[in-house]
Amino acid sequence: MIRAVLFDLDDTIVDTTRLAEMARRNAIENMIRHGLPVDFETAYNELLELIAEYGSNFNRHFDYLLRRLELPNNPKWVASGVIAYHNTKFAYLKSVRGARKVLLELKKDGYILAIITDGDPIKQWEKILRLELDEFFDDVFISDYLGVKKPHPKIFKRALKKLGVKPEEAIMVGDRLYSDIYGAKQVGMRTVWFRYGKYRDRELDYLDYADFTIESLEEVPKIVRGLNNEEKERSDSEVHAD
Amino acid sequence: MIRAVLFDLDDTIVDTTRLAEMARRNAIENMIRHGLPVDFETAYNELLELIAEYGSNFNRHFDYLLRRLELPNNPKWVASGVIAYHNTKFAYLKSVRGARKVLLELKKDGYILAIITDGDPIKQWEKILRLELDEFFDDVFISDYLGVKKPHPKIFKRALKKLGVKPEEAIMVGDRLYSDIYGAKQVGMRTVWFRYGKYRDRELDYLDYADFTIESLEEVPKIVRGLNNEEKERSDSEVHAD
Fold this sequence. Notes:
Two copies of one chain form a homodimer.
Chain A: E1 4-7, H1 16-33, H2 40-54, H3 61-68, H4 75-92, H5 99-108, E2 112-117, H6 121-130, E3 139-142, H7 143-146, H8 153-163, E4 170-174, H9 177-186, E5 190-194, E6 212-214, H10 220-241
Parallel strand pairs in A: 1-2, 1-4, 2-3, 4-5, 5-6
Helix pairs in contact in A: 1-2, 1-4, 2-3
Organism (chains A, B): Thermococcus nautili
GO molecular function, one term (chains A, B): phosphatase activity
GO biological process, one term (chains A, B): small molecule metabolic process
């Protein structure tokens, strides 16, 4: 009997990839508008490389970009990038299509809901609070805060313990086959791979750990209901067989 | 003959004190709304103390606030503070009453305009660009970028050199008697103390260095015009006396 549905945050509940791409493009455009003497494609590709190397939570993307482009350190250009990046982030932060509807449906059906995510705890909470999604979730587990990252079993075990459910009573929904699906399966949870965003064709080596693959979040309530009905029928027939 | 008017940024061109107070109040309110178990006055006063001790550019105000209040490190509360702080900052960032009109008037009269400010270069440029004030200024000098802070004569001298004017051809307008007025006077500039914001009754030991004291920015064009007319009359009468 499934009692808890656990979700990853980025590219599962929050439309992160789309947002980050828009924010980065707008940042470069605004830097050029304020005098950055480089064409868009050169600067944008350099920024993507830099982010790939230093990580998306590195907080000096724009001044490092100037270094990479062998330009002088100009705080006006850096500020232009920062402003456009933040404006986009705040204006276009959106939940994934169908996420709110699905959460409401699951909530009404009485399921325990939680988030398990990697990333900077303050930034992750910022997304949840800005989208006013916090009321949907019974708890939020952020790996950087707990000191273990997905797919480490510890983060899943701690979440299940805190929520008071057994692994077989929980299902994990996430966009990453490695951290979400392989991770949850290791501790005995059911798994739904949400094939979405930049990981939709990656980490396919771990596809076997996915019990279900979906292209729309709106499949989740059906899957959970289906699992619970199956189990009910099975136990009914067992009772009947006694 | 005055040819250049130099302005301080915070509480001279940008209404910083008012904005910071609103942003901090809203941050505390939002933290309490998201469960911070402390009354407003306690938390707000603790935050002000912390800012006084660590400086306003310290970037961990809200997690240090939790430490000072002997509360657990809760990223949800920190994020609540950060969100409200940023939202306020972006929504309420305003220029000082009359600033834009004065800049336009001086610009039309052909004066060279510049900013000389302390503070983090990216944050200072962010204010200028968000308010779209950059087109008014021929140059912006930010002490943290140059490595010397007001009232050090070097920053004033560098600005004058870059702008191509002599000290006696320049006038400094600022809200701080120590850093702006005493600083500019040391290198031989004229000075206008703008009595505004949290420094309106402070650093009065340096009052003698102010050639003019104003309560409204709109006095600036009159003062500059007055000085130039005086000088013109003086040189006319000298010519006449020959």
